[in-house]
């Protein structure tokens, strides 16, 4: 057995040396069946898995290696089943090969482990492994550079700069450290310092480091403007010699960036067409270099950019002829390339503009089919996360089940060139409302409304970017003005006037970044609104019935007196998992065994890089991850509130509220930004009080929001007194000064609450 084991390991190493990690992994798996306690073998598995970009499994392999180096008898984690054929012939026994340096004293082991952890999004653990490697080789500029990259990706820019400084000090000729430090400066908007470091990186590479030309061009665009940025990219194109091995890729990407700048410049001009025509030519030049045969992904990205600018130019012929070709090529590369499920999903998302433009074209002739196609695409992306490949898509007749008289379903669709809303009402086929600019058409746009729609779309994109940037600093002083800007951008007044005149209830199905916005605040406050991630998910939840009045509260941190007394008054028989009792085991057991309603006061944190690692943070550093939630059947719960929800700035994908709905919860209530504990508790207690009076959840939330918004200090005091709840000392002091003031009238305190669910 020893000779067979040695032969398998050596053949795996040979495959790695031949850049064939898939074959290497097959051999290593076969070897693990013979000796699953071999730390060197697990370390090699980690290398192969990292090269296959299967980062979570690489972390498992490297963790096993680290564990076994310390204790050869320790228990190890098993790898998930292999997703490639394992039918290669068994290798013949061979001679033993020399054993390379390995183990806890090998910095390369820690580097491989750190790389896998970083690529899996576990930056804190990755940095700890880089520190282990530095303890063995403290003067290694390579390790300092890797460490700086991990800090950069984690968002810790100060430590990233410090690590790159050390790498440059140890080796000032290492262009990568200069380039990486420049990227940190750029991320911090220190563009002049970034340009200086890019210049050094270019000097060290004889002006041939094309990513530096690309990134430098963006910094110049942001500091010196459009003409200087175009000149900088032209300089980069001239600097690349045709014999350079990266010449086609470099020229293709630099031409694409030229097109991007020309496209952006068009949005600043009264007549954008000349600039957009220049962008079109630049994208065509990019496609000449980025051929589909050699660079399939880059080719499609450039083609998507070209089609976008053709849409802005209203070049319908180009769209109708090239868009089907682009979609066909995308399917080809999804079949050709060896991609993990996450990579496949990421590529589809990166090229989602193709689908969106296809729906735009389809909506011109068949709004019903366009709506069904868009919803099916969004739901398929959700099903990816619960391993459901096939499902029965919704049709017009099924969608009618969600509607009532005076109810409308609004399916928001953002394509690269326009903002559209599919409006569906009872017993009516959907209509398409393309959002026009609220400030009307300017002179050039009257002859081509496509330009106006494009301007509107670009302005919305800019607004969403600003909204995300200030997500951590949401404040009463600016929120109302921001929401007014959004109302104008989406021209909600005109939408209500032309398409929603007879409506009192809305079901909102937003996508492509709109799902993170408080759209419900833009409509009349007398209307009742609820959200759905997809129409199909609403139909999955349609048959839900309330089964019991049981109540579950999960609070790993001590509840406030207001929360504690309020829940006991409303639900004296509630199951309360507080502080240390809010463990993962108890929380899972309660979710599996109970029914009714729940209040999860724990931090619910989204993970932007690895969505399945999004988690509810429980006692003793335990978590209930999104992966855990998707494995549960929670259809016995009519409602769960997430009162301490921390969203991630993602454009599309699955999140914790969507996961809870997919697990069967009928309604989810959350607040989209952190607010003070007192208004959160007040609004939720008032909500649960109304639910006990059989008020439907969406209406109960609307009434609770209006109650909080209009309540004076005196009103809040009387309400608390009725329940035997004393208001906080801060509120009592403020009430003495101005008893008739409404302390929570600003939208900041109530507008963030929204409800997802199956019905109004």
Automatic annotation (TrEMBL):
Gene Ontology CC annotations of this record: cell outer membrane
Transmembrane segments: none
InterPro entries recorded: CHAT_dom (IPR024983), Prenyl_trans_a (IPR002088), TPR-like_helical_dom_sf (IPR011990), TPR_rpt (IPR019734), Ycf3 (IPR050498)
Gene3D superfamilies: Tetratricopeptide repeat domain
Record's keyword annotation contains Metal-binding: no
Keyword Endoplasmic reticulum belongs to the record: no
TPR repeat placement: 107-140, 141-174, 175-208
Protein name as catalogued: CHAT domain-containing protein
GO BP: any one term: receptor-mediated virion attachment to host cell
Entry keyword set: Repeat, TPR repeat
Region feature (Disordered): 82-105
